[in-house]
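User: Show me a protein chain along with its predicted structure.
Assistant: Here is one chain, sequence first, then structure tokens.
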Amino acid sequence: MGCYECCMRCLGGIPYCSLVATLLCFSGIALFCGCGHQALTETERLIETYFARNLQDYITLAYIIQYFQYVIYGLASFFFLFCIMLLAEGFYTTNAAKQTFGEFRSTMCGRCLSSTFIVLTYVLALLWLLVFALSTLPVYFFYNMGSTCHTIDDLTETPASINQLCVDARQYGLLPWNAVPGKACGITLSTICKTREYQMTYDLYIAAFIGAGITLMALVHSSMQLAMNQDNLRRLRSRAKTEGYELYGQLMRDRGGPCSGTQHRWCEMTANRSGR
């Protein structure tokens, strides 16, 4: 076997769809976890600087942010291992389906493992759909804040109307109702929107939202790919069994021997398939 044939054989055994899904999952989780972690840190700084003057007003929020940051650490580690296992499963099912490395072999343990990965990936996709929906909440909050600031900038000629435009962090559950001041209005709010902290936090939440969407797309793609590989394995297993029956029946007919006893069923099935 030449070098070209060897390279083509190796390239033919690469599960490209699973590889794309793995890269999407890696990039999506990295974007979601990295940007989400930094966005939470910047959110705590914004609340502390502009919306709360007392530590007791935002200490609960600080604990919640710290808890979510620990969750992000766990998600990054889990999906790193899970994506590697998905890629390994893609190599196994693709090689078995394409018969790249020898004869077709599919054990009961391998089929059970593939089915388990399909179910697990499908459940993770449903759970991550909830994470994707929740990641829209901070984007919605900062979008409303930016829209209010844009309105304030357009109404600079009427100061009385400007002071009535506010963003209240207490309405979104970020602070308790007795927090002081708890909200920012007028020129103060417009100044906050022009700070580097606000712009960077807004961009980080958008990036985390995009990362959550990429991860969801990767999980759905992986679930469909694993199901398709499992279906290909089932078809190859059925084809191998049928070819075995036909080969045995043809051998018996070539020998001119009768089909009797335990051989009768195989010969009958072969005759029915061949139309003889």
